[in-house]
From TrEMBL, chains A, B:
Residues 140-157 have a biased composition (Gly residues). Residues 139-159 are annotated as: Disordered. InterPro entries: Mo/tungstate-bd_C_term_dom (IPR008995), Molybdate_resp_trans_reg (IPR051815), Mop_domain (IPR004606), Transp-assoc_OB_typ1 (IPR005116), WH-like_DNA-bd_sf (IPR036388), WH_DNA-bd_sf (IPR036390). Keywords: Molybdenum. Its main location: membrane. Pfam families: TOBE. It comes from Halorubrum trapanicum. The keyword Magnesium does not apply. The lineage of its organism: Archaea, Methanobacteriati, Methanobacteriota, Stenosarchaea group, Halobacteria. Residues 187-262 form the Mop domain. This is Molybdate transport system regulatory protein. It is found in: Cell membrane.
Length: 265, 265
DNA sequence: CACCGTTGTATCTATGACGATACAACGGAG
DNA sequence: CTCCGTTGTATCGTCATAGATACAACGGTG
């Protein structure tokens, strides 16, 4: 599984868990639930009892979070109803950030991805060109802001010419074009372009995964596909393009939507 | 901050931390470092001493991981060199999965995103249409596989017509087209399309963030921009398209690259 | 004034993860 | 055979986190 240049569309990246992290303090799903419960109940005490957890701990947890993220909850004691607590604007803001991070994570678990093995042939700033079985592909690297418990993940943010990397292309980033009606490449910002044939369609309710077989650039395998690239397409688009297995198509995706993962071996 | 329909391009979603999770057992950066050290040292004992952690704990941690993820390390005691350990294929596989998840997380922290507030007007399978300040936008919802400590994040996977949602568009998913040279919409699978003007360019080394002002669809604000959408573009593409502030452009992104986040209020 | 429910704060205990340490079992090398 | 470094396994102490409990402080309401 670790040998071939082609891995093809993978069903899913698996379940994951995400947390914001700032100043060494993690904001995870438990904290999000707490803030949401405070928002709903109007008090930390009510939220804690609603969640079945200790009120004192909930308060100290909020303290710890606020030390890293700023004021999240406006607390008031005494007065009408004995007091109460309300989320601040930044409290709602962090909930939004968490939700969006969660949405991205859920998407990566749901959306198929294509992984190509290759070697870096050129680096220019945040962009790198990688030689793969289907030709040269350009993508983003770096930005590994991954300071958790462990060491750097796969070699840090540095990448050098000749390094072995995996090119990750999310199926939701791949655009399928009619092969006959080729778009003027100068009119768009999508950079990577390949020709291929539809090798299969995995239907969904309204969204389908189209597998596209792409031939190798070097003439090593004449009629054989060097890789299979997955593309997420709405059923409507499939119908509009009249896609069916065997059809020649042109696929295209942005260099900025391509991620390079250092791949030691 | 929680009122307007427009939030504009946000600098970053903030740092985050991700972990695979299966069967209640998390696989985080610490575990990845351990497996990588085992691969490098050829033994758990060597890996533990290399990482400065307890050998007994490392072994029991591997046991715990294998109970959830299957055999990751092939251990052999006695024999040449006293024994040793090697990663199995699935051990390398989980490392790859973790690295790719990490890459996605790093990308979401690095890449700007555009967030639009809106309300759901139609739902059809995995797709939903949302009415926003810039018109109707379609995107994916659901797939909230987020079982961590807390409750469901923003309301679970269910979405109904009329619900308030945030539409999240990653800047790396937005394609910029020359307004003059409009592509035949029937020839591509990109669905959402808007016209706008370049309002600013934040230059990077080889990749820049282009901000595009989009006017409202309802004639409420004639000349004013209803939202600003961010697009990640390579410097080369900017030059090729001759982009400069004020230029009219056509932007486009796939419905499948758009995520809908339930947004209680 | 007393009453009430909340926010603060302190202390004790339980739990789980980890390091440290020790010892047995294994199997090839010498 | 002995020697060696590794894998197994068990035990103890430490540390961080969370629950449980108790009590003081607050400030409207009555």
């Amino acid at each position: 599984m670790e040998d071939s240049a082609q891995r093809g569309p993978d069903a899913a990246a698996g379940r994951g868990r995400a947390a914001l992290i700032e100043d060494g303090v993690e904001f995870d799903g438990r904290d999000a639930a707490l803030l949401r419960a405070v928002d709903a109940a109007g008090s930390v005490a009510g939220a804690a009892s609603e969640l079945g957890r200790s009120r004192a701990r909930a308060l100290s947890r909020i303290d710890a979070l606020e030390e890293a993220y700023g004021t999240l909850v406006e607390r008031r004691r005494g007065g009408e109803g004995g007091g109460g607590s309300r989320l601040t604007a930044s409290g709602r803001g962090i909930l939004g950030r968490y939700d969006r991070l969660q949405a991205v994570l859920a998407a990566t678990a749901t959306v198929p991805e294509t992984v190509l093995d290759g070697a870096v042939t050129a680096i220019d700033g945040e962009l790198a060109v990688v030689d793969t079985a289907v030709g040269e592909v350009s993508g983003l690297h770096g930005g590994t802001g991954s300071d958790d418990g462990g060491d750097e993940s796969g070699g840090g943010s540095d990448l050098a010419v000749g390094d072995a990397v995996q090119v990750r292309i999310g199926a939701d980033a791949v655009t399928v074009n009619d092969a006959a009606n080729v778009v003027d490449p100068d009119a768009t910002s999508a950079r990577n372009r390949l020709a291929g044939r539809v090798s299969g369609i995995d239907p969904g309710e309204t969204v389908s995964t189209v597998r596209i077989a792409v031939e190798a650039t070097d003439g090593s395998a004449p009629g054989d596909a060097a890789a299979e690239v997955a593309a997420l397409i709405t059923a409507e688009s499939i119908e509009r393009l009249g896609l069916a297995p065997g059809d020649p198509v042109s696929i295209r995706w942005k260099a900025t939507a391509t991620r390079l993962v250092p791949h030691a071996e």
